[in-house]
Amino acid sequence: MRSVTTKIIIAVLLAACSSALAEPFPSAEHNKTLTISGHVQGDDGTPLIGASVSLIVNGRVVSGTATDDSGQYRLTIRIANTASVQLRVSSLGYEPTLTEIQMTGESIRQNITCRQQAIPLGAIRVTPAPEPRMSSLQFTSSDIRLATSRSLVSTNAVAAIKYPQLSKIGSAHSSQLRIDGTSPRYYLNGASIGSDPDHYGMFSIVPASVVSDIRFYPQGTDSRYGLPSVIDLRTSGRFERDRGGELSVSAIEATGSYGFGSERYFVLASLRKSILDKLVKQFEVSTNRRAIPPTNFQDLFLSGGVRLSKHLALAVDQYQVRDYLRYSTTAPSRPDRVLGTYQHAWEQYVGARLNTLYGRALLSVSGSVKDAGREYAAWPDDLTRVSAVNISLEEKVRNYNAAVETELQVGLATLRVGDQYEKTARRSTDLHQKNWNMLPPFANSDNPYIYQNAVNSLYGTYQAETPGWTNAAYAGITLPVGRFTFEQGLRLEEFSSLSQSRQLVSRHSVRIQLDGERSAELFYGTFVESPLSNVLEAYQVMVRASMDQLTPVRTSLASLSYADRGFKASLFTKTITDMPVVSPDFNRVWTENYTLDPAFLQMRSEGSASFRGISTSFTHNHLWRDRLNLYVSYAYSHAVKTDHGVTVPYDLNAPHRIQCQLDYRPSRRLTFGTELVVRSGYPYTTTRTMQLGMEQFYYNETYYRSALQAENSQRFAANALVNFHASFDFGSTELFTSVANATNRANPIIHSTSGFIYDAGILPSLGLRYRF
């Protein structure tokens, strides 16, 4: 934060000095207007933001500027044909460069690459922040702005995240991301806010207008994190003299944000409200496809900070979220049968973080409280039907989080020690259901459970309070030795209310810099997490009822990665064990009174899943006169799950994934592009006949195993999307448009007992963004 502020201050002072020092050129007929523009980057290809660019004519500085958030600069002056022109570029942490400009025309394109350089400042060494891990990705504000302008929701910051192995739950527009069976843990400015914090799975609850960058760890993290996949949203509030805002309106939503600050404080706020649900109602839009409709939502975000002293800063983040969803569907074969669905979710979060720097030690302390609730209901138009699904589910949760971490520089080594504590003070669950299969509404298969009558009897009504807590203490060290960087870490986690609640895991990685452009990394890590998650995840009500019989879910991940400029490739293998699965006890089916034994259907930590594969990606920006950006990725994976000794394809196992993204900028104002996304279809289970009247005759091992072997035995057709987008930038105003699924392809995403549910068809969107 300080380095960016320093760069901007230097650039402003430089521009002011240049005005005072510059001597006027004689207005001779040999004078001409010269425009010099280009891109400034580090030797690792990273754009340098706020780098100082000075124009030197005949040994004197005559003009200057700073690079923007994509590393671009532009200078225009009046100059004599015979003048000697040089370009000087400097940025904190990089060697200054001085480039001679050849007067070949009135418009010159000059790209600059700066080499990294450590700068001694007394006892402190300031260097460019290294990438923590080869598999980690950082998406800057310019990446987010471009991604949101071509996204279905123009303020969805998560739309910027791309990775070859990334899966989406349900719709192609979903923000419920999965990386080989792992639901990423989300963080806000370094503080945990849970998994899938989004509006009905569609987009991030924190709007892109207040997000400055996203740090994404898809496959492997250090000892600070409990999971192998992490998404950290960083907001744009910072201690510098600045003010500005943004208004964004599209066919989906309207968002307004504003922030201001100084060297001592900052304030940042945003407000967002849905529009599409009102447009659909106003114009009575309908579709012959069974697709999930838009949600009615609103959210408020507030952030503020104060610098208490030179080395001490306090910041507070807060958000409030509400969304509502209600729709009705009918079966293609039985349009007279209507199923109504309702969902209401809310969340309130307040978090504070305190950072202090003393010498070589950085101390961070944070705490937060979050209240969340979810209501889900589904009911038929005819309540007398025996096979009808009828669900009423409500859960309310209150979480407290506290964390402390110390980072210390000892010679070349970096030591990190910390502790994270989370207390669930309240988790109240209230369920009334009939014929619900305990699967989430977006599951690939919408089949009744194998023993649906037993589920109705044992879990038809469930009401309970299940509070608890978790604690994690960790330590790690990073040590560079020549071309090698070694990183080791240990993490001790403890979970209340679980069997075998204390677990020790470790992280190990070694990275080698082969040369200036090529590097390789070997990683191995183990991870543990609680089986408790969102109440609408698979069998979570039964998990809550069986917590004292479950153990933490354990994950082992090994990967080998290689990078050469814009090319990245990795091999990986991942195993998840101790997953909670339904485990019938066929020796305890009936009680002495010939009623169903409560121990018949229990959750056990006996499931497992394994993943292995390869992912490759290639990024090449500034092609064809710096106007063309290209991104191509391919991933292959083999994924299976094992339940009760039966191995079948994993639910989100799409063996092949291809993505190609092309952006062309013919002028400074106009950008347009296209995106092609193809993946193998997800597996699903064919419709299973509900045996409500005869079910008791199938309570045996043979039938149960045969039913499990039919799980995910079918596969959807390949999912393919072609999207188009364009934007026109007027300076402070940007007009953008997109067309999702331009070919109107019918991609099935859920196989229901009453027919397929399809993803959205062709969906155009238009938006306007105004910055002030």
Task: Provide a quick synopsis of the model.
With 772 residues, the protein is mainly beta. Helix content is 8%, strand content 55%.
How would you characterize the overall build of this protein?
It is a single chain. The chain has 772 residues and is mainly beta. Helix content is 8%, strand content 55%. It contains seven helices and 46 strands. The strands form eight sheets. It has a 22-stranded antiparallel β-barrel. Strands 11-16-17-14-15 form a five-stranded mixed beta sheet. Strand 5 (85-90) and strand 6 (97-100) form a beta hairpin. It is globular. The relative contact order is 0.10.
- Structural class by sheet pairing and helices: mainly beta
SS summary, helix count: 7
Low-confidence stretches are 1-29, 119-132
What share of residues are in beta strands?
Answer: over 45%
Q: Compute the CA-based radius of gyration.
A: 28 Å
Profile the largest sheet: 22 strands, antiparallel, barrel
**How far apart, in Å, are the first and last alpha carbons?**
22 Å
Residue-averaged pLDDT = 86
Strand tally is 46
What is the 3D shape?
A: globular
Helix content: under 10%
Jot down its keywords.
772 residues, 55% strand, disordered N terminus, 46 strands, globular, mainly beta
Q: How is the topology of this model organized?
A:
Layout: H1 2-21, E1 31-42, E2 52-57, E3 60-66, E4 72-80, E5 85-90, E6 97-100, E7 107-109, E8 112-114, E9 119-121, E10 124-126, E11 137-139, H2 141-149, E12 166-168, E13 177-179, E14 185-188, E15 191-195, E16 211-217, E17 230-235, E18 242-250, E19 253-261, E20 265-274, H3 276-283, E21 296-309, E22 312-330, E23 338-358, E24 361-380, E25 390-410, E26 413-434, E27 445-446, H4 452-459, E28 461-465, E29 468-481, E30 484-495, E31 502-513, E32 518-529, H5 540-545, E33 553-564, E34 567-584, E35 601-622, H6 623-626, E36 628-643, E37 646-649, E38 656-664, E39 670-679, E40 683-684, H7 701-709, E41 714-715, E42 719-729, E43 733-740, E44 748-752, E45 755-758, E46 763-771
Parallel strand pairs: 1-7, 1-8, 14-17, 27-44
Antiparallel strand pairs: 1-4, 2-3, 2-5, 5-6, 9-10, 11-16, 12-13, 14-15, 16-17, 18-19, 18-46, 19-20, 20-21, 21-22, 22-23, 23-24, 24-25, 25-26, 26-28, 26-29, 29-30, 30-31, 31-32, 32-33, 33-34, 34-35, 35-36, 36-37, 36-38, 38-39, 39-42, 40-41, 42-43, 43-46, 44-45
